[in-house]
């Protein structure tokens, strides 16, 4: 992938009030406060779900029969998790409009359960970054003097040690970055687990070895000279340098680095590899569970435990203990 040229094109979806195949989607959000109760990404996904439902030939408001037909028609081609989200989108549309929820029909839920039993499959998961693979990527970037590679090194290390979601990374602003003697404190005014905008602080200390996210960020700041409000701004001939990269570009950067470092399953790496890798490596190094939760701003213990368990499947493995005892 050529990092020098970055497209300014972003996925833009219309508001819920729009025309789709000669059908009118009525505004489901009466005013700005209700709109603010749902994240932009969630609204955008719901809009796409409603459009697909209507493009299949169904009408709004929908009947339970039309929803059942939709499920049956797409049971073999769409992921059950996608169908489940589309039911949620339909439910919200009808409730906000004051219509009866057609998805509440017991047959719809039983049909979805049957679809999961027949067509369900494990969720594709991005491989976690390890400290070894992270170091490999940072070393690869350090061999270049391109401006974009300094940015990517800072993005990679801050993203990992801050356990950032890609939406958080692309929205980081310089006025929320505060360097302190111990490292850097990053204010997140809003995030997925802070919908009420109370703000969250992510503290990242200086590194003692090859990896140092604070130094990488300071170097990037000096090079870019705060020409953009956004920390991880676009660079290149076709970019003004004022706007942030988007979430898809974060995925592309990490995947391209995995390919360049010839990592196994390189095409499967994504921004989620940062959070999964952080939880796994922090646990291996003996970090208390509560500190891992706090650094990654996780709300649900089960999510973090899942990441940790996946990374420690061969640690204290019962079969390994037996095998070792027979040697």
Helices and strands in order, then pairings?
Blueprint lengths: L17 E3 L2 E3 L6 H5 L3 H16 L8 H11 L5 H18 L8 H14 L11 H12 L4 H15 L4 H6 L5 E4 L2 E6 L11 E6 L7 H12 L22 H14 L11 H13 L4 H8 L4 H11 L6 H8 L2
Antiparallel strand pairs: 1-2, 3-4, 4-5
Helix pairs in contact: 2-4, 3-5, 4-5, 6-7, 7-9, 7-11, 11-12, 11-13
Question: Which tags fit this structure?
Answer:
single chain; about 325 residues; mainly alpha; DNA polymerase, domain 1; hpI Integrase, Chain A; 2 domains; three-stranded antiparallel sheet; two-stranded antiparallel sheet; about 50% helix
Please name the CATH topology of the largest domain. Answer: hpI Integrase, Chain A
User: Class of the largest domain, according to the CATH hierarchy?
Assistant: Mainly Alpha
Global outline: globular
Mean model confidence by pLDDT = 81
Report the β-strand fraction as a percent range. 5-15%
Largest sheet: 3 strands, antiparallel
Count of domains: 2
- Estimate percent helicity: 40-55%
CATH superfamily label of the largest domain: Intergrase catalytic core
**Strand line-up across the major sheet:** 3-4-5
Number of helices: 14
Helix-strand topology string: EEHHHHHHHHEEEHHHHHH
Radius of gyration (CA) equals 23 Å
Please report the total strand number as a whole number: 5
Ranges with pLDDT <50 over ≥5 residues?
1-26
The span between the termini is: 48 Å
CATH architecture of the largest domain: Orthogonal Bundle
């Amino acid at each position: 992938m050529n990092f020098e040229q970055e497209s300014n094109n972003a996925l833009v979806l219309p508001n819920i009030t729009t025309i789709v195949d000669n059908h009118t989607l009525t505004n489901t959000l009466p005013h700005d406060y209700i709109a603010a109760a749902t994240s932009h990404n969630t609204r955008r996904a719901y809009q796409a779900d409603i459009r697909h439902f209507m493009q299949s030939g169904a009408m709004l408001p929908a009947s339970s029969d039309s929803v059942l037909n939709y499920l049956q028609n797409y049971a073999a081609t769409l992921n059950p998790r996608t169908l489940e989200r589309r039911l949620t989108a339909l439910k919200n549309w009808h409730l906000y409009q004051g219509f009866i929820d057609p998805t509440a029909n017991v047959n719809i839920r039983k049909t979805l359960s049957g679809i999961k039993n027949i067509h369900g499959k494990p969720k594709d998961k991005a491989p976690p970054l390890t400290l070894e693979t992270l170091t490999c990527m940072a070393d690869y970037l350090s061999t270049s003097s391109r401006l974009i590679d300094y940015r990517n090194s800072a993005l990679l290390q801050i993203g990992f040690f801050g356990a950032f979601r890609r939406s958080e990374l692309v929205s980081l602003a310089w006025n929320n970055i505060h360097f302190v003697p111990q490292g850097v404190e990053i204010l997140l005014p809003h995030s997925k687990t802070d919908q009420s905008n109370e703000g969250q602080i992510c503290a990242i200390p200086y590194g003692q070895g090859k990896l140092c996210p604070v130094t990488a960020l300071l170097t990037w700041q000096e090079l870019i000279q705060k020409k953009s409000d956004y920390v991880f701004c676009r660079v290149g001939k076709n970019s003004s340098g004022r706007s942030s990269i988007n979430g898809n570009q974060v995925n592309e950067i990490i995947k391209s680095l995995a390919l360049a470092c010839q990592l196994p399953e390189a095409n499967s790496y994504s921004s989620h590899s940062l959070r999964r890798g952080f939880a796994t490596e922090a646990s291996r190094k003996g970090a208390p569970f509560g500190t891992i939760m706090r650094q990654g701003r996780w709300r649900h213990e089960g999510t973090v435990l899942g990441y940790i368990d996946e990374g420690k499947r061969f640690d204290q493995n019962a079969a390994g203990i037996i095998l070792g005892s027979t040697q």
